[in-house]
Amino acid sequence: MQGVIRGAANQRNPTIPAPLDRIRAVFDGSFATINSTVANVFAADQNRREMLRVSSSVTFVSGDGDLPDNVLEKFIEDGTFSNAASTTTKYSFRRYPEWLRDGDTRLGYWTVIGTTMKAKTPATVTAFTGTATVSFICSPEVPAEEDDEFVAPADFVSDFENAMVQYIQGQIAELAATTA
Fold it and tell me: Domain containing 104: what range?
């Protein structure tokens, strides 16, 4: 995909002089930022948000687990949490970490503080220890290497390509203006 976008940047405005190395540097340096920006815009559309849902397992020790990478924080409340050992136990998200009072013991609770997930079990309301299956709205993984595949829904890839080309064209025009 990177080759397609890099080629598109040259084809769209061939009159602006810019070395290919500069285009590659702009592309590689802005990939993660544009990916995150496009993901937030994409997820804002309720009809497309579920296309970005990713499930994973998180291990909790004394109520703490690591929030998966690339979670879109604006859509954290769309996340789900289930105890892998007990599919009948239900967990509710709380925006605030209200662990001081026991609350409703029919449900377990989970929240996010920074990059840490916190969870308590129902009934006795104790810290959750074990493995949970979570799903969140996430931005697609940024490829580690230039040749790695960018895995994302087709609609997202189209939006990403358009945003990246517009960004690169803006950077090239800015470079041309400063060297003129």
Answer: 49-137
